[in-house]
Amino acid sequence: MSISILTDRISIETKNTLYVMQMLDGVLPIHLYYGKKISEDQLPAIAIDKPRSFSPYFKINGKKYSFDNLKQEISFYGYGDFRATALRVLDITSGSDVTNYKFNRANSFSGRKEILGLPYSEGKCETLELVYEDEVTQSELYLYYTVFFDTDVIARYFVLKNNGNKELKILKAMSLSLDLPDGEYDLISLRGKYNYERTAHRDPIYGGNHRIMSRRGSSSHHFNPFFMVVDRNADEETGDAYAFNFVYSGSFLDEIELGQDGLRIMTGLGDECFSYLLKQGESFSSPEAVMTYSEKGIGQASRNMHNFVRSSILPDSRDKKRPIVLNSWEAVYFDIDQQVMLDFAEEAAKTGIDTFVMDDGWFGARRNDKAGLGDWTPTPELFPEGLAKFVEKVHSKGINFGIWIEPEMVNPDSDLYRAHPEWVLRDGGREPLLSRNQLVLDMANPEVVEYLKKSLDKCFDGIDINYFKWDMNRNMSNAISPYLPVERKGETQYRYMLGVYDLFRWFKKRFPDAMLENCSGGGGRYDLGMMKYSTQIWTSDNTEAKYRVHIQHGSSYGYPMSTMSCHVSNCHGQCEDERMLDYCFRVAINGPLGYEFNILKVEPKVKDIISKQIEEYRSYEKLILNGDFYRLKNPTVDGCYAYYITNSDQTEILIAYLQNNSDPSETEHILKIFSAKAELNYRNTVTNEILSGAALRAGIKVKADTAERYGITWHFVAE
Predict the structure, then answer these.
(1) Among 9, 104, 266, 558, which is disulfide-ready with 174 (CB 3.0 to 4.6 Å)?
(2) What is the percent of the chain where pLDDT is above 70?
(3) What is the pLDDT of residue 53?
(4) Mean pLDDT (whole number) for 614-636
(5) How would residue 318 be classed by pLDDT, with cut points 50, 70 and 90?
(6) Residue 512 has what DSSP assignment?
(7) Given a cut of 80, is residue 517 above it in pLDDT?
(8) For residue 159, what are the CA distances in angstroms to 267, 546, 594?
């Protein structure tokens, strides 16, 4: 068993970590330790400082302790803890938002409980349940710790049940709270903007409150919910590293506060874009947050998260061979033409591309981004014999078919909006703001979700579609649901995501054999919530290789390569220059491979090169989808990006070196492959050169190129 419940102590073990809470006076769970496995006598003593001046305390305890300096497993607003707190609940009857729940009991069980309406991690696990009660409001709080032993991950969330006769409103909800001792820490976060998402930043944590958040109704291009807190001296191979993430796709808050008593870390829905009314008998479930720890540096914390995402988050198709797609967007944009699409499919099949994807512009009045969105009916002028007949013709070319959809949005110039203007997010009499000529459908309204199910079902019924690209191309403004009553308007964003997840679950059940790739202007919803339903995510709308290097490097801190949809495109003529085409490919094999260009306009030699690229990629695709990932060079710091991947027994290794800019000094880089087994010999499958594992561990020497855009890949297999 990985969970132990004793009278004075509760402990959680994973393969390499230990989490311990102490029962203070037998009635209050206090966080004691989270880190590498240690013996009982090595555990720190519980830190109980007598209340300082200005620190409130219970009369019954005298001046024994105060919530102001205890490391509680969950902290409550307004009850003597002046640090950032995890839960704030308003008693509407009294007007009091003072929140306090007293511990009642602890239980453990094999497996886990379902989080109704929300995505959550699955697989072999055990769960700890802590139950708290509030006598004043007659409500119960359930804290859940679900333990994934093999991947060293602990998942956390809470359920709040209103058993009394008062109405309660949750004003702040944080799914995970962790107090670390005093120390010098750095924060690694993934920041950016549209077209330049998830670039890795490492900053010292100084005193004060640090908030990483999205107010956009999505996890956003700008701030990703994943982050790490690491020892100031930690690097890729050594030092303490804690990693955190949120299984949710809407607005969120990561809160890191360094104060007088150490470091408090929290992640959850936050307090700005969320509130939730609990009437008598109702309950609320927070989304799940996850954490892991490694004593072996930042790289191992990343690999823990990668293994967890692959085994417990991604849908069942995670291990299958991925489609290599040719997408029509950058070739024709909205100018969809049936014969051109068929010609695309035929030429793509000749190269070894196995899936042709028809992007935006195939439905309703959708000739540009100003009209038709929301009307999921194939345009008769484009497909006079119907969409089903067109798809049959595509398949007859020897290639699979994929299609683009954007169910959550609507153009004002659409039949759907003209029929139901009340079905969009809008704030009373105020003019709703447009973005990309779109409004956001009110997914908090079950009637809207049901309409979309029927509409999409009718559109695709009986059509053999192998792949869907699900897009979402704007953030929320006027984020008020007309459907919800006044007292529940603050629930709009949360209920919106419940509606989206409901539609995703229906979609996966309705089209079980089709792979679903998620997109939000590229990486605007690159999160664990979306990964629960989509096998991979379009990493960024920016397909220019020199930028993708940084985006993919940053993404690797929290997410496995198997989630990063990476395309070779003809951005700025990248396919027309053979050197650039090779470099784009070397960059794109940082994840599942695809292509995005006008295949009818490239020279035959380009198609020949693409055929060889696909053959090469397929030779080590399994490694990319399932291997252990090691960062070697940081493109922001080192002037190049390098990494390697190994299989579980280190008998296969893929190494990549990528250099954006020219280096006249021809700097020599040494790439040390520490995972290679010294006693084995490895053969380069391209050159047939044999290197010993000891030589690989000592390092491959790479001389920087004097020209820009240089990439090289080595694929070694043990003899």
Answers:
(1) 266
(2) 98
(3) 77
(4) 97
(5) low
(6) T
(7) yes
(8) 15, 45, 42
Q: What is the pLDDT of residue 45?
A: 86
Give backbone dihedrals phi and psi of 549, rounded to 5 degrees, phi first.
-55, -50
In whole angstroms, what is the distance from residue 129 CA to residue 25 CA?
19
Residue 30 in tokens: 């206090």
In whole angstroms, give the CA distance from residue 589 to residue 606. Answer: 18
* 387/389 Cα distance (integer angstroms): 5
**Torsional sign, CA 553, 557, 562, 564:** negative
Bridging pattern class, strands 355-358 and 515-518: unpaired
Tokens of 116: 């109704």
Q: How far apart are the first and last CA of the chain?
A: 40
| Residue 25 among the catalytic residues | no
Look up residue 49 and give its two tokens.
Answer: 């400082």
Task: Verify whether residue 442 is a known catalytic residue.
Answer: no
Could you give the strand order of the β-sheet that contains 681-684, starting from the edge strand earlier in sequence? 628-633, 641-646, 652-659, 710-718, 681-684, 690-692
Residue in 318, 266, 259 with CA at minimum distance from that of residue 291: 266
| Structure token pair of residue 526 | 């690159």
- Give 568-622 pLDDT, tens digit per residue: 999 888 888 999 999 999 999 999 999 999 999 999 999 999 999 999 999 999 9
d(CA 680, CA 691) in angstroms, rounded, equals 9
Tell me the whole-structure pTM to 2 decimals: 0.97
d(CA 8, CA 20): 11
Residues in the chain: 719
Comparing CA positions, the residue from 331, 324, 391, 329 lying closest to residue 352 is 324
Q: What is the distance, to the nearest Å, from the Cα of residue 666 to the centroid of all Cα atoms in its chain?
A: 37
Identity (one letter) of the amino acid at 401?
Answer: F
In sequence order, what are the residues at sequence separation of 6 or more whose Cβ sits closer than 8 angstroms to the Cβ of residue 705?
659, 662, 663, 666
Catalytic residue among 68, 152, 375, 541: 541
Structure confidence at residue 67 (pLDDT): 87
387, two tokens: 């969409």
The token duo for 332 is 């024709």
179, 186, 354, 471: which one is catalytic?
471
Could you give the angle at which helices 578-588 and 604-619 cross, rounded to 10 degrees? Answer: 30
Contact yes or no for 12/19 (Cβ under 8 A): yes
- Per DSSP (E only), the strands in 111-233 are 126-134, 139-148, 153-162, 168-180, 185-193, 196-204, 208-214, 223-231
Task: Find how far residue 506's CA is from the centre of its chain.
Answer: 21
Q: Read off the pLDDT of residues 57-108 as tens digits, 9 standing for 90 and up.
A: 877 666 678 888 889 999 999 999 999 999 999 999 999 999 999 999 999 9
Summarised one tens digit per residue, pLDDT across range 386-443 is 999 999 999 999 999 999 999 999 999 999 999 999 999 999 889 999 999 999 999 9
DSSP letter string, 686-708: TT--EEEHHHHHH-EEEEPPSSS
Please enumerate in sequence order all residues whose Cβ is within 8 A of that of 174, keeping only pairs 6 or more positions apart, or say none: 85, 86, 87, 253, 255, 266, 267, 268, 269, 270, 286
